[in-house]
Design goal:
Shape: globular
Number of domains: 1
Radius of gyration: 17 Å
Distance between the termini: 45 Å
Structural class: alpha+beta
Number of strands: 6
Number of helices: 3
Length: 103
């Protein structure tokens, strides 16, 4: 069994999109939209309405002899049914609550 969903992408832009019901994930570059949809529905128990994908090619950065190489990745924008959400970082909220209780 191959791993399709690698990790969620958490930035300022994606947190704004999450309020609209759109979540962004890094996925396997060989995965298609149907596989991504089925995996999200199975993992998070939600209904997926739409999946859009973006392929980012391999890129080299840097001017010296040491170059940074970003590997080829694929992002998936997943739109959920109205009223459904995904809690991407549940442990972070638990830590925040315990921190507030002690201080």
């Amino acid at each position: 069994m191959k791993i399709i969903i690698k990790k969620p992408l958490i930035t300022q832009k994606t947190t704004k999109l999450a309020k609209e019901g759109i979540y962004v994930f890094y996925v396997d570059p060989k995965a298609n939209k149907n596989e991504i949809k089925n995996e999200i529905e199975k993992l998070f128990k939600v209904n997926v309405v739409d999946v859009r994908t973006v392929n980012l090619k391999r890129r080299e950065r840097g001017l010296s002899k040491y170059k940074n190489i970003r590997q080829k990745v694929k992002k998936a924008y997943v739109k959920l049914k109205e009223g459904q959400t995904i809690n991407i970082f549940p442990q972070l909220w638990e830590l925040k609550i315990t921190f507030l209780l002690y201080f």
